[in-house]
Amino acid sequence: MMADENESKPKGAKSSDIQAHLDALLSEDDWSSLPTRQSQEKKARRELKLPRRLRETFAEEPEDLVAESFEPAVESEPILFPYERGAILSATALTVLAGVLIYLMSPLSQVNHYKVVGSESLSKKAVLDAAQLKTGQPLLTTLHQADYFSKMAAQRNPQISGLKFELVSDNTIEIKVNEIVKVGYVKADTHYYPILENGKMLTSAEADQPVGGLPLYDNFTSVADLKLVLAEFGKLPLALRRSVSEIVWSPTKQNNQRLELYMNDGNEVLISANDLASKLKYYPAMAASLDNKTGIADLQVGAYFTPYGQ
């Protein structure tokens, strides 16, 4: 027997020759009788002895079953113990707290400059003193308590109605002043007192004569009439308000609200108190067309100019 096998396998034969020799020994029928992969899988399923319903399911999708059964298990992420999670949270909180403390102690958290806008006659120092604002104050606290500083300024200075705060750069706060403008003076005894557009007189700022180019109010017998004129006059631009030297209450039968305005350019203007803001704004254009003539500009009804001496 050993001799026959040695004779059937020639010496020095290559692997291809060996394969060809085996193919010649096995016929086509012999190959068909060899177990296939599919038959092996069916045999394996029978050996599992599964219920019929499951065997039918596996028979419909055998490839998926085989693929799923050999999928490698996915490793889950490591689970932190409670004390480890607590340590991480504590370290994070301490880091954030340290950052906040460093910021609060650094110059970046302080106000380095205040920019005051919207003020007509109040100086920057007067506004900051009234609100008790200083450089070096905490930036966030100052912005957060803006209403408090605004109310304080209004209480300490009657010319301030309110303040609005806005952060315009890292360390600069812009303060917009809502000012109650000064509209002239009233005379009491031998002193002159500034008066505001809301009718409040500044008794602490008495002067020997009107200053600042603002007019003197004269001949008023009613507080209501005076407040009406003050409110109307306060609506005018500052340059126009400073062009009036005196405002006299001089009603007539035809106009019980007539005012006589004496201008710094030598002219006189007749106008109704309730029309003061709406009509006096046209006076500069009228005066520019007079060719240096002086006289009376009547703005009660329409607009008429009569030179002096006519």
| Distance N to C terminus | 161 Å
Helical content band: 40-55%
Oligomer state of the chains in this structure: single chain
| Content of β-strand | 15-25%
N-to-C SSE string, H for helix and E for strand: HHHHHHHEHHHEEEEEHHEEEHHEE
> Over all CA atoms, what is the radius of gyration?
51 Å
- Mean pLDDT score, rounded? 80
Overall geometry comes to: elongated
Structural class based on helices, strands and sheet pairing: alpha/beta
Low-confidence region ranges: 1-10, 64-70
Largest beta sheet: strand ordering: 5-4-6-7-8-9-10-11
Number of helices: 14
**Number of E-state strands:** 11
The major beta sheet can be summarized as: 8 strands, mixed
Please specify the SSE layout and strand pairing.
Blueprint: H1 2-8, H2 15-25, H3 28-32, H4 37-48, H5 52-60, H6 62-69, H7 82-105, E1 113-117, H8 124-131, H9 139-144, H10 146-156, E2 160-169, E3 172-179, E4 182-188, E5 191-196, E6 216-218, H11 223-234, H12 238-241, E7 244-249, E8 258-263, E9 268-272, H13 276-279, H14 283-288, E10 295-298, E11 304-307
